[in-house]
Amino acid sequence: MTEESTTNECADPTQSLNIKIPCVLAERIERYAKENGSTVTGVMIEALDKFLRTTD
Prior knowledge:
The chain has 56 residues and is mainly alpha-helical. The protein has a domain at 23-53. 59% of the residues lie in helices and 0% in strands. The protein has helices at 3-7, 23-35, 40-54. It is globular and about 35 Å long. InterPro entries: Ribbon_hlx_hlx. It comes from Desulforapulum autotrophicum (strain ATCC 43914 / DSM 3382 / VKM B-1955 / HRM2).
């Protein structure tokens, strides 16, 4: 393993983050997850990842 690849790894690959979002948005996320056979967590991860990748 190269030095560069180890600097991009986290000690723990997950981290808990609590946020408050509008109820209407939470309902949309839940509905989308259910309709697509996913979880709320999965939808949030994918949405945030896509958003942050397109803003770089």
